[in-house]
């Protein structure tokens, strides 16, 4: 039997996959996109009022990955037995058409230019010795100037609202003074400040910092993107992070790319198709296609293709590489191999300040990407010399819409009651009068923090689960503590009656039970040296040159910013080089 | 899209129409299956538990009320229908642990690596309640619901602190399950059986399904002026 063939197969229908599928069909290729989850459209899954039901949405997690089919195991150290992540909590991977892009929040950053060359930058300023033993600090192998056109393109596709600081070398507005130069302004004007955001803005200014509006992929007015896809203005409904936007205001692959892509005759989307592996030829240096399971019929299907794009999300990409034998698995003992190396996350801690009872913070009003931040303690924007750590953290008020069940579950603890009458009083006061302030920071890569296959547990398809070995390390804990201490003057300037500044504690292990972020990174990183990166600077596998692996897996370390703007720019960057160079003469774009 | 007739109609209050700030499209969404469910639930009072036995149900009612008591701040779990909410949740996919990874082996480890028991929520309640009632009878000679509030609080404090073992289920795990579901019942949309008369939302000043705040993004710390509305259109 001859297998069905496509010029390119794209695994995963999130942002990364949708961008690649769009670019490759534009280049005239036949493209099949395979998505393990079900079909999803805003008109159905996002329909009001079902979409704004907290229990069904963020609490029962209807849009997220169904762990009963597949999950990961987690341990903190190499000596431990990793145990399955049985209930969604610390991170919430997506599933279904649109991936996590359907229910993300929409904070749409670029990158701090220095973060792309963090190793070089640290060494230039503080010398090689400044890097702690066991930290795998690396450059991306691509510069901000090279990526700029692709950041710009992604913002135009996403319909991003924001205020620029500098465009073509000219200061144009009140944006982030630490931003890299831009070739154009944001496609949409900045979103309004919520009351909490404007309070933070005023206080941060008074404290001597440089506040700016978060770039938000929540539309500040109606918009038609370069693909002809339309968005309507966001009304701050507050059912944003973890929800499908009922107003077509939050950028998603479903709203901003797929309506155009679905009309292309060269494009086929197959949902309920769980890819089991990328098939390789005997040399193990060329992919011949993929094999997937039709989850509805439990039938295995093989497809052949000239080009395979893995865009199944950071750790699923690494999982598929390990299951398929793409690249050499990383071994922390011998410090060899690259698949699974440099697994990173982000340090996030949420502090809280209370305003006087006359001020209502109306926390249920908000939008996922909206808020005010400072970058004074992010990236290389401050002197690390006397501090002795690498990395940094933006600090922000990002009121995405706080809903009552989440608020109730999260109130109490740390010496305050978690139930009973005193708890109730505190909950009401906190809900009505407080402001959340996050330190959302970087997380470095370490020799003994990595991904590999679990020796014990299997998924519903009989394949070994991915194993995460991860914990917080001293460098990142001290970074977090330092940045959190900088919130104090802001809290004072806000006129806070009380503040609860929360930071990581020395020796505190990573806890899978509490939401952190879904900003996992690394594991198959990009770079210039095949010994320390699984992908070259075009996100092409060093080992199997007709496989490109697109996602935050490419980040050599976790940055302070939310990842999706960077993922989208890298997707357009890789696609550009596939279109302009690879397709003309398939093979490695960089010689190893 | 031409507006369709709503399949179910309820009296509209003035405040509701005002509160929608002009977007009456809400009422044009027809066939919202939850409405029928919500109304049917209202009709069949008092609630008859389907998952819990009458004794278990008495326990859930009493324990939820201690965790979330009626007080000067507002209604407690009993008034809000929390026990009914939990009973109904046990019959939902969630009660059966539909999106939990439940493959063996089940190996216990450090708490920070998360839940590792072979039990779904239904099992946790069945075993947890049995274990706690055994403990309560031994310590106090009565079932939990028949104890004075102070004794109930003492038991829940011990459970939360981890000093009570319930056989297969660690006391702390059962406590967290009960606390989480109690709070869900106090604040979920009333269509799930709790948050009766929107009492939970009223306490917090949460406007429920309004989901349109164009004119209240920043009013310099003024309280949002409108009361809550539920998915089925109930106002308070
Ligand atoms: C609640 C929440 C809020 C967030 N907010 C922000 C934010 O404000 N800003 C920001 O920058 N980022 C945010 N993120 C992160 C953001 O969602 C991700 O960075 C982004 O969606 C990643 O895109 P992706 O295409 O790489 O992966 P995904 O969107 O996860 O898409 C991957 C797809 O691949 C599919 N897949 C996986 N394995 C297989 C397989 N074996 N076979 C077939 N298909 C497979 C998955 O089902 C999924 O649909 C948030 C995430 C969450 C969960
Ligand atoms: S807050 Fe805005 S972008 Fe987010 S879901 Fe609501 S309307 Fe959509």
From TrEMBL, chain A:
Gene3D superfamilies linked: FAD/NAD(P)-binding domain
Keywords: FAD, Flavoprotein, Oxidoreductase
Domain (FAD-binding) ranges: 6-43
Pfam families membership: FAD_binding_3 (PF01494), GMC_oxred_C (PF05199), GMC_oxred_N (PF00732)
SUPFAM superfamilies: FAD-linked reductases, C-terminal domain, FAD/NAD(P)-binding domain
UniProt keyword Oxidoreductase, yes or no: yes
The Glucose-methanol-choline oxidoreductase N-terminal domain, residue ranges: 143-337
InterPro entries: FAD-bd, FAD/NAD-bd_sf, GMC_OxRdtase_N, GMC_OxRtase_C
Domain Glucose-methanol-choline oxidoreductase C-terminal residue range list: 452-571
This protein's record includes keyword Oxidoreductase: yes
Annotated family: Belongs to the GMC oxidoreductase family.
Protein name: Gluconate 2-dehydrogenase, flavoprotein subunit
